[in-house]
Amino acid sequence: MTRRRFVGGLAVAALSAAALPLAGCVDQHPYRNADGTEQQRLIATSPAVATICDKLDLDLVGVCSSSRDMPERYAQLPQVGSPMSPDLEVVKSLHPSCVIGPNSLIDDLRPEYAGIAVACMFLDLRSVEGMYASISAMGAKFDRREQAAALVSEYDAFMADYRASIDGKPQPSVLVLMGLPGSYIVATENSYAGSLVALAGGQNVYAGSDQEFLNVNTEDMQARDPDIILRTAHALPDQVMAMFADEFATNDVWKHFRAVKEGRVYDLPYDQFGMSATFNYPDALQTLQPMLYGEEG
Q1: Cα distances (Å, whole numbers) of residue 169 to 61, 62, 156
Q2: Contact 229, 197 (CB under 8 A)
Q3: CA–CA separation, 132 vs 148, rounded Å?
Q4: Is 95 left (phi over 0), alpha (psi -120 to 50) or beta?
Q5: CA end-to-end span of the chain, whole Å?
């Protein structure tokens, strides 16, 4: 038995995003221009979504309240509250034609928006591929096809070069741990951090699950004999990494892992391996390359 208490089922559910497609906006009460045409009045409820809107050259009427950097063009806009719990009164007062957020929150927020008769759209930000599929859908929806196509082309070109750089290299098996202060869970390839490992050529030892995160005991983790252990944080990265350091130093079970014996345990930078896909995925993949393949990677 392990000494560390794992995250309970409710915490796993809170971290897990439903595998749902892009949900579309159907505004029942459009806010119109003087000439009678419908105004495009958009609200972005997460920094990742706001960054996508900026890349697509979309104007917004509101953004989430966040300590993370917001694109400069949106810095002076009204704030509608936290990504997980926007202020519905403020949202409604801005007369949005569409509120756009990550689909990890669709089950919680879609009923809330329906309750105030506000249209909404949810983007798949659980993977880089999902992000670019969402970008293409937004380009079609908001008349930004050219901008979306350019972004997708950049992604395709980068990934072609990256895949060529790791072609033929042995694919290591990887255990990805997602930490919260005091506890941790396993991240599958369905999580954003896990999807980056998969893009980089790593083989997740918990591949095949339909969940983003799993509660697993350390005995089962050890039995899967990962070549590499990667540790990342859901939030509060300084506290989480201190927790991981203490856990690996004081819980004797870890010394039996081959990855620990061989010194192949790495902490991932929080700004590159968060919960939602962002445009800094090239930096994240470059960070992973020496971890997975050695310094010559």
Answers
A1: 48, 46, 21
A2: no
A3: 8
A4: left
A5: 37
Contact 111, 47 (CB under 8 A): no
Tell me the β-bridge partners of 38.
32
CA distances from 239 to 129, 247, 248, 270 (A): 30, 12, 14, 12
State the Cα–Cα distance between residues 6 and 216, nearest whole angstrom.
Answer: 8
Residue positions counted in the chain: 297
Amino acid 21 reads P
Q: Give whole-number Cα distances, 192 to 36, 82, 144, 164, 273, in Å.
A: 42, 21, 25, 22, 7
The structural domains of the chain, with segments of one domain joined by +, span 14-162, 170-293
pTM of the model: 0.83
Q: Over the stretch 84-106, which tens digit does the pLDDT of each residue have? A: 999 999 999 999 999 999 998 99
What are residue 266's DSSP bridge partners?
230
Q: Domain 170-293 is classified in which CATH homologous superfamily?
A: Nitrogenase molybdenum iron protein domain (3.40.50.1980)
Question: 3-state DSSP call for residue 68?
Answer: coil
CATH class, 14-162 region: alpha beta
pLDDT digits (tens, 9 = 90+) for 246-268: 999 999 999 999 999 999 999 99
Check residue 66 and give its pLDDT.
79
